[in-house]
Amino acid sequence: MSDAAQPASRLPEPAHGHTEPTPHHKVNYLAVFTTLVVLTVVTVAVAFIHIEREWQKVLLALTIASIKAAAVIYYFMHMKFEGKLIYLILIVPVAFCVILVVSLLPDVTFAPIFHDWSTKAWRLVLR
């Protein structure tokens, strides 16, 4: 078949292994950095605020830390510019992290009770 007999709508394929450059997304890294510094100062300030219950102080600090982590992932790791599939892939490690934290909470929460009991038990055994 000659070149003249090919349909006009058919374009030649690009060479394999050749990619076209895509435009770089503009991110205001200075604003993101400033936000992270301000949130770090707020986290330190939370430690000095008089809050009656310690768990509320810890929850507030962890919330601020989660916001900072989300900003780092979103901007510095360029998740803002990714497709939807990468968010689906991100769900698995985040779910494992939540499961790990929730499963360790009883151990951390009741550690003083078990620690006091176990030290008394060892004292009885060693005497």
Helix-strand blueprint:
Elements: H1 29-48, H2 54-76, H3 84-109, H4 111-126
Helix pairs in contact: 1-2
Outline the structure in words:
- It is built from four helices and no strands.
- By secondary structure, it is mainly alpha-helical.
- α1 runs antiparallel to α2 (54-76).
- The longest helix has 26 residues, at 84-109.
- The protein is elongated, with a radius of gyration of 27 Å.
Pattern of helices and strands: HHHH
- Round the Cα radius of gyration to an integer and report it: 27 Å
Q: What structural class should be given to the helix and strand makeup?
A: mainly alpha
In whole angstroms, how far apart are the ends? 100 Å
| Share of helical residues | 55-70%
The general outline is elongated
Number of domains as seen in the coordinates: 2
Number of DSSP strand runs: 0
In terms of DSSP E residues, the strand content is: under 5%
What do the pLDDT scores average to? 80
Continuous helix count: 4
For the biggest sheet, the summary is: none
List the uncertain runs.
Answer: none
Oligomer: single chain
